Amino acid sequence: MSDRVLITGGAGFIGSFVAEHFLETGCDVRILDSLDPQVHGTDGTASTPAGAELRIADVRDKEALRAALDGVSIVVHCAAAVGVAQSLYRVQHYVDVNVGGTAALLEVLAERRTALRKLVLPTSMTGYGEGLYRRPSDGALRRVEIRTEDDVRAGAWEPVDPDTGEILEAVPTPESAELRAKNVYALTKRYQEELALSLGALYGFPVVCLRLFNVFGPRQSLRNPYTGVLAIFLSRLLEGRSPVVYEDGGQTRDFVSVHDVVRAIARAVESETANGCVLNIGSGRPRGIADVARDAAGLLGCDVEPTITGEFRRGDVRHCFADLTQSRAVLGFEPEADWGECLREIVEWSRTAPVSDRFADADRELRERGLVR
Predict the structure, then answer these.
(1) In terms of C-beta density within 10 A (0-12 exposed, 13-18 middle, 19 or more buried), how is residue 50 classed?
(2) What is the predicted pLDDT for the residue at 250?
(3) What phi and psi values does residue 325 have, to the nearest 5 degrees?
């Protein structure tokens, strides 16, 4: 008998690819999604694969969850409000959706008397804040707090050692690194992890949390100005505008293909040794943000340079990329996707996707709240 899989947020970017995977393996797939207009537009466009059952409901609706969980043995909980900057001024919304939605799901799972084979919870690397660094003079590993405006005014785009003043070198960040981020989105993802692991252990259902780094790929909303930075760049380029890059453009992110993320989720479902674990899922490689903007422009055939503002967005980290040692050991996970091929894939997809460049609106909201200096 095949498994029945529930994917919350399954009509969205990552969730729709997860749904396709389980359909291809012969599972019955049920999707619960609210079709949030910020992601799906006012027309409620959904990336629902053929063969999946779509139930339109809010993840905080426990009655809808009870009905959606009927006969389900695997849950992949992708439903979430996503956006670091927006979370700083839509605090209640982010806490309600991410923490409240996860709490509602866990309550309903705890009520059930039938066995759940696995709950997989994609969370976020944003919880780390700044990543792990090395001091050049002696190789000592260091963690630093997120830079302040005073740091930046002193000319320190790069984190410096608080004891010696040396500019630090970024190294891969492992799961054992303390979670230091204070932004609302990061806190909600951290609470998701803690709630799921705690209640899974208490009520006896297996949980795996996957800390995703910067996921990119087709179907990432080009209408949501709070989504992944690559999608924001593409939305501007497709409307003939220059991508806007804060700081000096030298900050880096770990871009991981949605196809690798789906492979990691599939492995987490099947792995018994992963139960109760929190695991990094990334490419393990940092990429400069200004370079990513240039790469996207080049593939689109746009002769435009990014606009590098030299301004600091409060709360932004400089460098953080994944140490994949534990994911390799526990899941046998290895990123397989080629950066160039996957970038071409999203660029080609973007040419026919619904686009609305709302970056200026998001930037204005940040400035009105004093979050860009």
Answers:
(1) exposed
(2) 96
(3) -55, -50
Looking at CATH, the fold of the domain delimited by 4-131+173-368 is given as Rossmann fold (3.40.50)
Q: In sequence order, which residues have a C-beta less than 8 Å from that of residue 111 and are 6 or more positions away? A: 66
Of the residues 94, 128, 133, 185, only one is catalytic, namely 185
pLDDT tens per residue across span 273-294: 999 999 999 999 999 999 999 9
Count of all residues that appear for the chain in the document: 373
pLDDT at position 164 is: 93
Helix axes 184-203, 101-111, angle to 10 degrees: 10
Q: Given this model, what pLDDT does residue 320 score? A: 97
The domain limits of the chain are 4-131+173-368, 132-172
Does residue 306 register a pLDDT over 90?
A: yes
CB-neighbour burial class of residue 124 (10 A; exposed 0-12, middle 13-18, buried 19+)? buried
Q: What is the pLDDT of residues 46-77, one digit of tens each?
A: 678 889 999 999 999 999 999 999 999 999 99
Q: How far apart are CA 192 and CA 200, in angstroms?
A: 12
Note the pLDDT of residue 42: 62
The C-alpha atoms of residue 86 and residue 89 are separated, in whole angstroms, by 6
Q: Using H for helix, E for strand and C for coil, what is the string for the chain?
A: CCCEEEEECCCCHHHHHHHHHHHHCCCEEEEEECCCHHHHCCCCCCCCCCCCEEEECCCCCHHHHHHHCCCCCEEEECCCCCCHHHHCCCHHHHHHHHHHHHHHHHHHHHHCCCCCCEEEEEEEHHHHCCCEEECCCCCCEECCCCCCHHHHHCCCCCCECCCCCCECEEECECCCCCCCCCCHHHHHHHHHHHHHHHHHHHHCCCEEEEEECEEECCCCCECCCCCCHHHHHHHHHHCCCCCEECCCCCCEECEEEHHHHHHHHHHHHHCCCCCCCEEEECCCCCEEHHHHHHHHHHHHCCCCCCEECCCCECCCCCCCCECCHHHHHHHCCCCCCCHHHHHHHHHHHHCCCCECCCHHHHHHHHHHCCCEC
Q: Which range (154-168, 301-315, 339-353, 356-370) has the least confidence? A: 356-370
Give catalytic status of residue 246 as yes or no.
Answer: no
